[in-house]
Amino acid sequence: MIGKLSSTQIEELLQGEMIGRIGCHYNGTTYIVPVSYAYDGTYVYVHTYEGMKIEFMRHNPAVCFQVDHMQDMANWQSVVLSGTFIELKGKEAQKARDYLFRHVWPLLTSSTIHPHEHGVSGKPDDSNRIKPVMYRIKIDKKSGRFEKQ
Questions:
Q1: What pLDDT score was predicted for residue 139?
Q2: Cα–Cα distance between 59 and 143 in angstroms, integer?
Q3: pTM for the whole thing?
Q4: Distance of CA 90 to the CA centre of its chain
Q5: How far apart are CA 1 and CA 147, in angstroms?
Q6: When comparing pLDDT for 49 and 111, which is higher?
């Protein structure tokens, strides 16, 4: 059976996952890329670095965001959001980054996120590092579908 997710099911899926795909479009090119995210019931928060998707979204802030949960090919749920990219700065960015990291950090297991385990100490030199960008998506529309057998 294929059907539409209820608003409660959409909220549960958005709260329960941490990887989504953002779609943006600029100058005749569409770009879709996976991102880790946190959803607070109002906004989707994402931390990234300068690059193509940020360039596209700064020129055209209309975005699409998709999240799915798959048990198998006959049992899945998918949510699609349309919304607006909003770049965050200063205290607003820090507050959003803290929220995102509290949501995602417990799920991270890569040794690269624990530099002290590799003999790295002190403050890293980030003078020529690509700078981070924090943004949120203001959600304009949500829809969801499912298949269950």
A1: 98
A2: 25
A3: 0.83
A4: 20
A5: 6
A6: 49
One-letter amino acid at 113 equals: I
pLDDT tens digits for range 93-123: 999 999 998 888 766 655 555 555 555 555 5
Q: What 3-state class would DSSP assign to 76?
A: strand
Dmax over Cα atoms in the chain, in whole Å?
A: 56
For 38-86, give the DSSP string.
Answer: EE-SSEEEEEEESSHHHHHHHH--EEEEEEEEEEETTEEEEEEEEEEEE
Q: Which residues pair with 21 in a beta bridge?
A: 34, 66
Name the fold adopted by 2-107+132-147: Pnp Oxidase; Chain A (2.30.110)
**pLDDT, tens only, 70-83:** 999 999 999 999 99
Tokens 């298949």 — which residue? Answer: 147
Half-sphere exposure of 122 (CA within 13 A, CB side): 5
**Closest C-alpha among 60, 64, 61, 57 to residue 80:** 64
Domain ranges of the chain: 2-107+132-147
Tokens representing 16 are: 């329960």
Task: Give dist(CA 95, CA 104) in Å, integer.
Answer: 14
